[in-house]
């Protein structure tokens, strides 16, 4: 069942129409992946869904209700969590304080600590002293304790070692067990396609591929062509 549904969405940055006519569905208990090269419009799309960039046409529904005209804080209240690329944590607060200030009524700190035992071990440490990977765990944890129905996650792999990224990806997959619909934006496709069900590829702000992650994962040529609009080097040349 789709919890988040976009139809014909355009998103502007200032005067520029960056995202064009995007339709997309994200299901409860699944990871939906949004891929695309640098500058293809992924973050702008996420900002549009979260209410941080102007949606000039199209509709956005969360749990069947329209949210496209609500301010960002009301979208959050309706169940939309957003883990931005900037990995926002309060650096001078402890890990536990970071989680407490982000928590809404039912939000469960223990669920975060089960998912990330390394955060429990550092619960009294100032967040500014955590490693980059741990800060990303905390950013995910902060979104989780707000008890979202949909979680947008933008490029959590940015600047992190592959082994850390894999750890985070597995945690994200585990989060789907809580029934959350996850929309995962990534520039680096391989790991995201491993944990995702459905994928969308953006190029110049438009959806150029929509379909099963498995299909893209098994077909490098299709992935390359979706990203760049051309066949990979060597393909189509005479043997
Ligand atoms: N505040 C802004 N004002 C004007 N143009 C912007 C702004 N932010 C982004 N853009 C432009 O919008 C386009 C899409 O950027 P966006 O950050 O959404 O892409 P992205 O796919 O998330 O890329 P990246 O992987 O680099 O984050 C780019 O051409 C970018 O230059």
From TrEMBL:
PANTHER family: ABC TRANSPORTER ATP-BINDING PROTEIN, HIGH-AFFINITY BRANCHED-CHAIN AMINO ACID TRANSPORT ATP-BINDING PROTEIN LIVF. GO terms for molecular function: ATP binding. It comes from Nonomuraea typhae. Transmembrane segments: none annotated. Keywords: Amino-acid transport, ATP-binding, Nucleotide-binding, Transport. PROSITE patterns: ABC_TRANSPORTER_1 (PS00211), ABC_TRANSPORTER_2 (PS50893). Belongs to the ABC transporter superfamily. SMART domains: AAA. This is ABC transporter ATP-binding protein. Pfam families: ABC_tran (PF00005). Residues 4-229 form the ABC transporter domain.
């Amino acid at each position: 069942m789709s919890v988040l549904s976009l139809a014909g969405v355009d998103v502007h940055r200032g005067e520029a129409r960056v995202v064009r006519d995007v339709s997309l569905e994200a299901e409860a208990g699944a990871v939906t992946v949004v891929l695309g090269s640098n500058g293809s419009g992924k973050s702008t799309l996420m900002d549009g869904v979260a209410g941080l960039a102007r949606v000039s046409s199209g509709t956005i529904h969360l749990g069947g209700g329209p949210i496209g005209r609500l301010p960002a804080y009301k979208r959050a209240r309706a169940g939309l969590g957003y883990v931005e690329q900037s990995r926002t944590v309060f650096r001078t607060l402890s890990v536990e304080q970071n989680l407490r200030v982000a928590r809404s009524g039912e939000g469960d700190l223990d669920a975060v600590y089960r998912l990330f035992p390394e955060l429990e071990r550092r619960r009294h440490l100032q967040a500014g002293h955590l490693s980059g990977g741990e800060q990303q765990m905390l950013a995910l944890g902060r979104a989780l304790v707000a008890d979202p129905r949909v979680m947008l996650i933008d490029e959590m792999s940015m600047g992190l070692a592959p082994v850390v990224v894999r750890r985070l990806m597995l945690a994200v997959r585990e989060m789907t067990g809580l029934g959350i619909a996850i929309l995962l934006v990534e520039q680096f496709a391989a790991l995201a396609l491993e944990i995702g069900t459905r994928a969308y590829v953006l190029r110049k702000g438009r959806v150029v591929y929509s379909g099963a992650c498995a299909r893209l994962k098994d077909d490098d040529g299709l992935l390359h062509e979706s990203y760049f609009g051309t066949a990979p080097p060597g393909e189509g040349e005479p043997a």
